[in-house]
Amino acid sequence: MKIATWNVNSLRIRQDTVLDWLEHNKPDVLCMQETKMTDQEFPEDAFGDLSYDAVYFGQPAYNGVAIISRPEMFEVVKGFPGAGDQEKRLIAATIDGVRIVGVYAPNGQSVGSEKYAGKLEWFKRLRAWLDATAKPEQPVVVCGDFNVAPEDIDVHDPIAWRGSILFSEPEKAALSSVMDFGFSDAFRHIHPGARKFSWWDYRAGSWERNLGLRIDHFLVTRPVLERTVSVTMDETVRAKTAPSDHIPVVLEIR
DNA sequence: ATGGCCTGCAACGCAGGA
Fold first, then answer.
1. Which of A155, A159, A167, A252 supports an S-S bond with A229, CB 3.0-4.6 Å?
2. Measured CA to C1', what is the nucleotide nearest A36?
3. Could you give the C-alpha distances from A107 to A15, A89, A171, A207, in angstroms and in order?
């Protein structure tokens, strides 16, 4: 089974790009982030034409997550339970016996800001939700845009980035506490020394100069890790016309 | 990363992203 994650940065703008990528890469599942559209606007039929079912959890202009899948999806969950979860950042479904959770972690804006505090809180909430709804002995995949680069090797210039948003110690600790549920970083496990990025800023010619960060991840429990065949980053899409600033990451399991 | 751009919304600049 091939599971992909991609922050598409507006599905409205990126729809043709995504459909083209699906036709060429044929994942069984794609988790999308930053769809930036309401559920009424979601182009369910376009994915249906490629034999994908869709579940989606959107809002106008900001955030928005979705899962499209060829195998049937069960036990769909949208957002954390209870009130106060206004931002659409989490969607989950069980597919072929694997619990798949697509997440779009808050960006955090700048270290010390109100949004930054909210980001750290969101990671706590994710961990608590996992504790309440899943078990590390089960096959669980949490994938998406975590907006955190875990280690120096995941940052083009770790010295320049030290302490700044996406790479500050509290953010890394927040991601670590989610990992401590019982996850491995699937990409890093398969490619221990690889310097690969999943996001490049639109500004400053970052892509052309390869000034990127690895902030899109597959966190997998041991039963999934043992079945993992490959984890790949598709940089080819970043070089095309009107790309998302993020690229797809693909996990293949037996 | 000094900053540079892209997207959505409702304007004709701003918020937000990362």
1. A252
2. B8
3. 23, 11, 10, 20
